[in-house]
Amino acid sequence: MTEDGETDGDGPNGAPKWVLPTEIPFKELKGRALEECLFWLLDGIGARDLEWRLGGIGSGAADGGRDLEARFYTPGADGQIEPKRWWVECKGRTGTVEKDAVTSACNNVLSDRNVDCLLIVTNTTFSNPTRDWVKTWQARFPKPQVLLWDQPVLERMLSDQPSTVLRLFESGLSSAGYLRAITERFWSLLEFSSIERARRIWAERQTLKIGPMERIALIANEFAHGSIHERPWGGYCTAQEVFAACSMAIFNLLFLYSKLMKAGLKQEPIVEAVAYLILASLRHEQSDRLHEVMEIALRTEAGEPFPAKVLDLLLGPILDRLRGDLQLVCSSDCDRFDRADSLKHWERRHPIEGYWSRFGRHGTPPKANDQSYARLERTAEPCRVGFQVDNPRSCPLYQTDISVENLNDFFAIATRVLKFRTPVLSRRQKATQCTSAPSSS
Fold first, then answer.
1. CATH 2.40.50.1000 fits 19-159, yes or no
2. Which among 251, 371, 385, 433 has most CB atoms closer than 10 A?
3. CA 155, 202, 237 angle in degrees (round to 5)?
4. HEC states along the chain?
5. Which residues, other chains included, contact 182 with Cβ-Cβ below 8 Å and sequence gap of 6+?
6. DSSP bridge partners of 73
């Protein structure tokens, strides 16, 4: 909903329309394709212990389908969690599902009294006589419960699961669906999407609702693919929107690092994304608010500050990235420093030098992680940004230690550098940005 109370989506009640049903190839959704669709749909609604149930009407049958088995864990009457066993039969058809296929499935399931629910799914429809027969059969046999899912039901369920559509039917997603899927995959699995999808969302960003969770996912996605230069998600937004995203990222640092370590993934995209959001917030002179957020977020449930080791784990890489980026970029055109010193940081091995090693037995030795370098400062030259420097006082970006204890001091220095260095928007550009950026509420 927009700020003036009007609905702005194409879905029910003005919600964004994530899935385009006409783009889902239901006519071709048979056999293995229908099974795959059901597997991920059930996984998306909370099914556990999903597995293929072969035999009988399974593999090799006329419909080419393999049955599925799953369990849903739900609270019983006494509040205890109980497993509910589901059998799933897929009936991929060109026309209406024949009644005999349904009656056979219902009668076969009676052989296993441990089944709580029989789900029969088709890419087309069930006839009214078939549905009437199931009601009569269910009256005689209350267990298992029988569910019939046809194309309209699949459409409705897929509309609520854009990540499943992205996995199986990419063309069936709207731009809002792409955004939803990228966000879900990041926060649930720490997975990143392709650059092509990011480009599509960027091209239609003025029509989309991009909230804090979406913005964090998009920014991390960009850094996972290299850089954020082409699509500056922290620049294309208001001061309040970038601060909201930055705050959410800081409050979720422990969550994100835990998932990273559990999955054995690289932390660089997350580190770079959070560092970028902090700098984007400082650009809008929000250092006091940022420090307040960190004071609140970096505490235990009992309200005690995290131990020093935990703070160093969470913030250390981010603060190092903050300072390193500003040092290298700001000094690159400063008369007090040699530009070559800054470029050494991003220097990489030339691809031709190590090409033939790919056919060897031992490979090329990795470059050392130590990216330190000698820095010579011309103390007689003035600071381009305007800091007061002389013989005893060096560049504050290099001279000031950055830690949790002196964040305010470093944030003040970073804010001044950003204010001097970043492009200045004209009044017309500012007005355009504020009016074109969709509401994230």
1. no
2. 385
3. 115
4. CCCCCCCCCCCHHHCCCCECHHHCCHHHCCHHHHHHHHHHHHHHCCCEEEEEECCCCCCCCCCCCCEEEEEEEEECCCCCEEEEEEEEEEECCCCCECHHHHHHHHHHHCCCCCCCEEEEEECCCECHHHHHHHHHHHHHCCCCEEEEECHHHHHHHHHCCHHHHHHHCHHHECHHHHHHHHHHHHHHHCCCCCHHHHHHHHHCHHHCCCCHHHHHHHHHHHHHCCCCCCCCCCCCCCHHHHHHHHHHHHHCHHHHHHHHHHHCCCCHHHHHHHHHHHHHHHHCCCHHHHHHHHHHHCECCCCCECCHHHHHHHHHHHHHHHHHHHHHHHHCCCCCCCHHHHHHCCCCCCCCCCHHHHHCCCCCCCCCCCCCCCCCCCCCCCCCCCCCCCCCCCCHHHHCCCCCCCHHHHHHHHHHHHHHHCCCCCHHHHHHHHHHCCCCC
5. 193, 197, 198, 201, 214, 217, 218, 221
6. 83
What's the CA gap between 92 and 35, in Å, rounded?
Answer: 9
Domain ranges of the chain: 19-159, 174-347+375-436
Which conformational region is residue 340 in: left (phi greater than 0), alpha (psi within -120 to 50 degrees), or beta? Answer: alpha
pLDDT, tens only, 350-377:
566 666 666 666 666 666 555 555 567 7
How do strand 81-91 and strand 145-149 relate by DSSP bridges?
unpaired
Q: Give yes or no for a contact between 41 and 156, defined as CB atoms under 8 angstroms apart.
A: no
Query: Would you say 83 and 73 are in contact if contact means Cβ atoms under 8 Å apart?
Result: yes
